[in-house]
């Protein structure tokens, strides 16, 4: 207000508003006093405070010890009127005090430490038993070593273990120097040549790397040795790019050793002529915009003209190379992706598939009904099944995220002959079906399969035509080894060595020789021979 100015007269409305405010404040003050007299009042926290205490403007020093104050518990209010207690009486005060003490004791009991055993399971496991039983991966820590071989009492098994464990790393170069592909390896295979170890590897971006492991390091001249380190020389590696996306699987047919078939997430299958250096697309959807990522490829030994494949969309395909790609047969075998499959190498009308819906399924292609091959049987795992691989004895090996390797013999007992499963299959007529019991695995191996996001999924691979007629499979180990097992689940070897610094997740056997190769997420290769 300016000096000397006359005071402004309040309007009737303003006078009434101020009177209402004064009346409300008086009422609140009276109610507060009554509540205090009854013992039912606790001062509410003021604005800008926490737990009724003002926040300090200065930050406490890190060394200052914080003391946690016990929070005062306000009693739960009950109706004194319904209880027949007069307000502002001694009885009302006593009742309020008793309720307050009771609430305080209850809160104290909740915070009290409990001793003794606690049972939360109610008869069932809190998490899956398979998760409890799996080993946690500890880098470089062996789970199978020379002590296991030394303590083996079976002479034949001991000899086999010594033989497989004697495989040594290819020492021409250290593994971290053999970068066979630019990106993460997703698939690998050996050329079937039994005299020269030739390795193929497909990576995440569609690159195909080829290494001839019979090469040796070239001799370094004396005068060059004074100036340069001979370690500067790298192995000769051929790299081509037949696909635009992940190479998921590859196959070489015995009758066409010059051709490598590759399947890719770019929805195509290509045949690469290794002599001419030409990769021909032999299958792909008619519409280039159609996305049908191919997850596996196989060809029956008895017929090199028919290609079988699976897709991430859950389809199984059969395509005759002499026909137009539009005439390929597609069967929707799963609502979710099929991660891997294989044909029975001796009876190729039987197909084993592994899918994200947790099932390993066995199909018979001799009888197609309702646009589907006959489902011989299925086995459900606790989590998704990554791959299903047939061996020449008619058995199927799978890996699953339930941390198991399972071997299925489909009810056949292998105590008489290792080919009991195959002999049993030969008696099945078209349309034959197995019951649930026969589909259960005869062998279950506990194995850590938790690869995570940056490591390629672990898949078991059999030695297809072993020279010693002993069925053996190989699989990557999260402890940065490669494990070898026999068909009965006995571990034969655990391959490692100096320079293996990453998980060789993609591991395969040579079809006949005792050669094993593993590929890592950095595109590097480990070869044991």
Automatic annotation (TrEMBL):
Q: Which InterPro entries does this one have? A: WD40/YVTN_repeat-like_dom_sf, WD40_repeat_dom_sf, WD40_rpt, WD_repeat_DNA-damage-binding
List the keywords (alphabetical): DNA damage, DNA-binding, Repeat, WD repeat
A GO biological process of this protein is: regulation of DNA damage checkpoint
Q: Which SUPFAM superfamilies match?
A: WD40 repeat-like
In alphabetical order, the GO MF annotations are:
DNA binding
Q: What segments bear the compositional bias annotation Acidic residues? A: 223-235
The cellular component terms of Gene Ontology attached to this UniProt record, alphabetical and capped at eight, are:
nucleus
Fetch the SMART domains from UniProt.
WD40
Q: Where is the composition biased (Basic and acidic residues)?
A: 59-75, 90-109
Locate the region Disordered.
Answer: 36-113, 215-241
| Family classification | Belongs to the WD repeat DDB2/WDR76 family.
What does it do?
Answer: DNA-binding protein that binds to both single- and double-stranded DNA. Binds preferentially to UV-damaged DNA. May be involved in DNA-metabolic processes.
Which PANTHER family has this protein been placed in?
A: WD REPEAT-CONTAINING PROTEIN 76
Protein name per its UniProtKB record: DNA damage-binding protein CMR1
State the organism of origin.
Capronia coronata CBS 617.96
């Amino acid at each position: 207000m300016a000096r000397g100015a006359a005071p402004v007269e309040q309007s009737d409305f303003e006078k009434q508003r101020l009177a209402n405010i004064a009346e409300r404040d008086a009422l609140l003050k009276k109610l507060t006093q009554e509540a205090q007299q009854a013992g039912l009042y606790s001062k509410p926290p003021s604005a800008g405070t926490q737990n009724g205490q003002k926040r300090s403007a200065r930050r406490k020093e890190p060394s200052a010890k914080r003391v946690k104050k016990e929070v005062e518990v306000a009693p739960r209010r009950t109706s004194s009127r319904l209880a027949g207690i007069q307000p502002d009486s001694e009885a009302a005060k006593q009742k309020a005090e008793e309720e307050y003490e009771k609430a305080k004791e209850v809160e104290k009991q909740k915070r009290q430490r409990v001793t003794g055993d606690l049972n939360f399971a109610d008869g069932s496991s809190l998490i899956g038993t398979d998760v409890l039983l799996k080993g946690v991966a500890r880098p470089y820590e062996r789970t199978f070593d020379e002590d296991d071989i030394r303590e083996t009492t079976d002479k034949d098994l001991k000899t086999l273990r010594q033989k497989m464990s004697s495989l040594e790393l290819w020492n021409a170069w250290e593994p971290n120097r053999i970068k066979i592909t630019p990106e993460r390896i997703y698939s690998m295979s050996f050329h079937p040549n039994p005299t020269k170890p030739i390795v193929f590897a497909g990576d995440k971006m569609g690159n195909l790397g080829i290494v001839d492991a019979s090469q040796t390091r070239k001799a370094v001249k004396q005068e060059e040795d004074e100036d340069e380190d001979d370690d500067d020389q790298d192995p000769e590696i051929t790299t081509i790019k037949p696909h635009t996306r992940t190479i998921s699987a590859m196959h070489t047919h015995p009758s066409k050793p010059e051709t490598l078939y590759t399947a890719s997430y770019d929805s195509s299958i290509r045949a690469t002529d290794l002599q001419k250096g030409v990769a021909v697309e032999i299958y792909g959807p008619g519409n280039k915009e159609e996305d049908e990522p191919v997850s596996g490829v196989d060809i029956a030994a008895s017929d090199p003209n028919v290609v079988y494949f699976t897709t991430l969309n859950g389809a199984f395909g059969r395509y005759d190379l002499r026909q137009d790609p539009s005439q390929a047969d597609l069967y929707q075998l799963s609502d979710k992706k099929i991660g891997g499959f294989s044909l029975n190498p001796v009876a190729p009308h039987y197909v084993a598939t592994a899918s994200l819906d947790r099932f390993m399924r066995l199909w018979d292609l001799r009888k197609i009904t309702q646009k589907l091959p006959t489902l011989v049987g299925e086995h459900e795992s606790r989590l998704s099944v990554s791959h299903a691989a047939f061996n020449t004895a008619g058995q199927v090996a799978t890996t699953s995220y339930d941390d198991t390797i399972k071997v299925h013999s489909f009810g056949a007992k292998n105590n008489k002959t290792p080919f009991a499963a195959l002999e049993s299959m030969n008696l099945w007529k078209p349309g034959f079906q197995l019951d649930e019991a026969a589909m259960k695995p005869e062998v279950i191996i506990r194995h850590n399969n938790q690869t995570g996001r940056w490591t390629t999924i672990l898949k078991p691979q059999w030695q297809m035509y072993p020279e010693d007629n002993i069925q053996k499979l190989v699989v990557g180990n999260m402890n940065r080894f490669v494990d070898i097992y026999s068909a009965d689940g006995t571990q034969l070897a655990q391959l490692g060595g100096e320079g293996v610094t990453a998980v060789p997740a993609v591991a395969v056997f040579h079809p006949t020789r005792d050669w094993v190769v593993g590929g890592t997420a950095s595109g590097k290769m480990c070869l044991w021979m």
